[in-house]
Amino acid sequence: MNLRSAVAGVLLTLAATSWNAANPVNDERPALRAALRTVTGSIVAVSNHPAEGGLQVVTVALETPNSDAGIVEVLLAPRQVLDEIEFTVEEGDAFRVRIFVGDEGPLKAHKAMNLTRGTMVRFRTLHGIPLWDSKGDWAGGGCRHRAVQGGGPRGRGPGR
Amino acid sequence: MLRRVPLLTVALALALGGVLRAGVSDELSFVAGYSTADYGANGEADTRSFTLRYVRGSAVRFRAELPMLQVRNVGAVIRTGHGPSPLGQQGQGSSSEPGGSGTDGRDGATVGSGTGDWETGAGDLRLAATRSLAGGGAKLFRVDVGAQVKAPTADEEKGLGTGEWDMRAGVSGEYRFWSVSAFGGAGWNRLGDPSWIDLNDGLDAYFGLEGVVLAERVTVAGWIDGYEEVVDGVGAAGAVGLEVRGNRRPGWRGAVTVGLGDAAENLRVMFGYSFSPGGASPGYRGMLR
What we know:
Chain A is an alpha+beta fold. Chain A is 22% helix and 32% strand. Chain A has four helices and six strands; from the N terminus they run H-H-E-E-E-H-E-E-E-H.
């Protein structure tokens, strides 16, 4: 392998990835982007609701002073998921959430940041698929991995 | 140096023990790489590598990697834990000079003076352990501490390594913003000295940003890193890098770095493929982003 072939390999991979993402057959990105909206506000209520499988799911009512929406209610995740990943929400917390709009039923959270407590979690994929299993156990893992690995080709930075 | 081996063994066993207690995911990677350097026309070093890497753990993390190398050194070059480095004026010595830099005192073989022939063999085994110190999980920040050793499994006569142990202790961290994450780290490197040259211990550091693009399919990261002068007179070195990696498993990643300074490699490219032997799926789905 010489330099040119190595660079060509990397570029081909990037091109293939880009093509795949741009392929109309596979690309839901424009539609997904349109279906997402980010709102920021203050939590005025936290509620538990019964859901499938005997789970309790948590919703927050978010007052959004800078939005026409007023108070929006957002479904976050099962209570046991929030407890497992230590993502706490309480009344009065400053909160930012990216929600799926246009879906039937309650607004679902794609990603949420609790500005008061300094926590952030992605709850669902862009396709709206929850990152927990049918038993209500968190299936999204526990941490980020790349920064832990550190590295770089010589042992630092990304690449490990 | 041999006196350090038991201590290192105990340290690594303790680290591994912590990982096994943690009982979390593992990951196996194959990484192909190529790099080239001309050190401002003061030598050349080309490297082709194929590295097997195993990573296990989360809050406590253990990493082992062993590269197979094909290297070509022209002029005075030494390959430390930082990678290949020019020897500068210290590479101009001869066997008749006390403390001369170009000759191994044990058998008189010239070390560090590459002939331009390709040499092949196993590289240095690297073992590392990191532990989460603060943050992590859903928190916006994370701080880890870690240690790494480079065991001298590479053949120094072929110019594949120094034949000495290297060690690194460091701290790394990250802070997640809404759409991007900042990451960085710093470490202290203890480089083992071959009999024919004194290598400088020193600091390294890196800092970068990363973000998720293409409908969460791909993560792009850019960074800058640097480390202090390894050999007197050759200067500090560093690099800027760009990495692109897929967020699904099995995963892939590609990276390109461009060197900063005459002591750095001009260019390095790598491509890696990783999967989880145990079926666990660390990666983007494992990120509390």
